[in-house]
Amino acid sequence: MRLSTEEIKKIFIDSGALLEGHFRLTSGRHSDRYIQCARVLMEPKYTAALCSHLAEAFKDKEVDIVVGPAMGGIVISYEMARQLGVPSLFTERVDGKMTLRRNFEIEKGQKVLVVEDVVTTGGSVKEVIDIVKEKGGEVVGVALLVDRSNGKVDLGTTIEACLSMDVVSYEERECPLCKEGKPIVKPGSRAN
Q: How many domains does the chain fold into?
C-alpha cells in the first residue's frame, strides 16, 4: 500500500519522532533536527504501514533476503521481510567493523534488499552493501524510512525512502549551535 507524503509525515509527527534541538548524529555531524525512528518503530501499526509503502516499490525485484544494520535496521528488516515473504538478517558492529554474525549467511547470487531507518551520509548502509557483495549477493536496492540527505547520498543502487528531507548538518568545527553554546544531545544507539 503506497502512502501519500502527507500520510507519511503524519505518522512521524503523531509518533513524536521529529525532534528539534542540538544533536550529534551517528555520522559525527551536528544538526538542529533529529528523527528518532525508534518512536515510529515502537508502534507496529506505523511500522507495518511504512514498510508496506516501501515493500510495494520492491515487490517485482524478486528479493530473496532482507538485511539491515543493527540497531536501526533490525525491526525494518524483519517487517520488510515479512511483507515480502523472505528471510530477514541483520549486521552488527564488532570492534568497530560491520559484520554478519549469528550464523547468518548470504548465498552467492541471492538478491538482497538492504534497509535502514535513517541515512545522512550512508556510511552504515555502504558497509552492509559491501558485506552483501563480499558474500556474492546482488543488492537490488536500499529501502529507508528517512533519507536526511534529500536524495544526495549515492549508494550505487536504487533508493526508496518514505521521507526525504534536506536537514542541514554541520561539521563540529562549523556548527553554529556549538558557537551559541547550546548543549548537545547524542540520541540513537551509538555512544559518543
A: 1
